């Protein structure tokens, strides 16, 4: 009976080392925040070169994710896109230099977390829900942003005839 107790104690202590609250800071030094979409039938991709986030994940009693990204740091490698994105019709970085995400709820999943929150972009805060998957030594999440709902590109492409209405944001954090 004594050996059974030791086995239970060892098992419980092993389990507790694997179930701990994950707290980390992420930015462009240890993670990538990218975006992609279609323009005139061609795929474009880009990254935010300057951003930061703080993640406190379950089972922490008060999980949260807070992120800010500098919109002027959006780069695609295409000079036409890179010059257009900061303009008033697109990100309007002069008036809205920073976008923010603040979680409202985070739930533990088998392979990661379900995250709900508000994405504030170009002065509008709208709800976003996505899964943040734990893949070996990375956290990976993707979600679509309806650019028209945020007033992005409304003057030049209000019908999303040239630039896709939904822009995919992808986050990869190295653990």
Automatic annotation (TrEMBL):
Please state every residue range assigned to the domain named Lipid/polyisoprenoid-binding YceI-like: 21-174
Q: State the SMART domains in the record.
A: YceI
| Endpoints of the signal sequence | 1-21
Q: Does the keyword Cell cycle apply?
A: no
What Pfam families does this protein map onto?
A: YceI
SUPFAM superfamilies named in the record: YceI-like
UniProt entry keywords in alphabetical sequence: Signal
What this protein is called in its record is YceI family protein
Q: Give the organism, scientific name.
A: Alteromonas sediminis
The upper taxonomy is:
Bacteria, Pseudomonadati, Pseudomonadota, Gammaproteobacteria, Alteromonadales
